[in-house]
Specification:
Helices cover 44% and strands 18% of the residues. By secondary structure, it is an alpha+beta fold.
Length: 237
């Protein structure tokens, strides 16, 4: 079975748009938006980058990544020592230094060694990738839920706008005269509502049943929305 080699590429440091095309500001070559090509820039090191293996230097430490996973976390002490030596050699071969932070291309020797380690620690690498994928899915699910919540709140606000009573209108006018007519999301919703009830007792006083308009709506309060004075916010009416 034929072995597949990792793709190699040269990374151009920066580009600008000219006549609708990305052009390297150093060598003048037309580039894809990734800035990765199969030919070097005038600033490129002699060693090309690798699509799977990379070397990152930070705080005088060279870390080797295989598909964005730190491979050293699975290695034995002997393997880690060899990995560190090959990583530092790659940094210096690329014209860098261990005290100069940045991304560096790996030597062919380092790539071969890392791929052997990756084969040995396949299960560990897959576990890390699976965990990252699960975290990404959870983040997307949360974003979807928050978006649905926002749509529901907007719908409720619109319904309250249409159904407000003359008494509601008079209350809103009083709020407007005091510049207190914005609906915002607040962590201190309960305290702010209490302050509003203290300032407008005649409106919030009830006898037999709690009020059902938006200014004293339990669902709205639980959602964290209150009426208060804030500049450049979305008005509630």
């Amino acid at each position: 079975m034929e072995k597949t080699q990792n793709r190699k590429y040269y990374l151009h440091p920066s580009a600008e748009v000219k006549d609708g095309k990305w052009v390297c500001i150093y060598c003048g070559a037309e580039l894809p938006q990734s800035l990765k090509t199969d030919f070097p820039c005038t600033t490129s090191p002699k060693t090309p980058f690798d699509e799977k293996v990379s070397v990152s230097v930070w705080n005088c430490t060279a870390t080797v990544f295989v598909e964005d996973v730190d491979i050293a976390q699975f290695c034995t002490q002997q393997e880690s020592e060899k990995l560190d030596k090959l990583a530092e050699d790659s940094v210096y071969d690329a014209g860098g230094a261990i005290n100069f932070s940045g991304q560096y291309p790996p030597s062919d020797k380092l790539v071969r060694y890392v791929m052997r380690l990756a084969k040995k620690y396949t299960a560990q690498l897959l576990t890390v990738k699976l965990q990252r994928a699960q975290e990404k899915i959870q983040k997307l699910q949360k974003e979807v839920e928050e978006e649905e919540d926002d749509k529901l709140r907007i719908k409720k606000a619109a319904m309250r706008y249409v159904a407000r009573t003359p008494r509601d209108q008079a209350f809103l006018q009083a709020l407007k005269e005091r510049n207190l007519f914005y609906l915002i999301h607040s962590k201190d919703a309960e305290q702010t509502i209490m302050a509003m009830k203290s300032e407008f007792p005649e409106y919030y006083q009830t006898k037999d049943q709690p009020r059902q308009d938006f200014t004293d709506d339990a669902n709205l309060l639980q959602a964290g929305y209150v009426v208060c004075e804030v500049e450049h916010s979305l008005p509630c009416f």
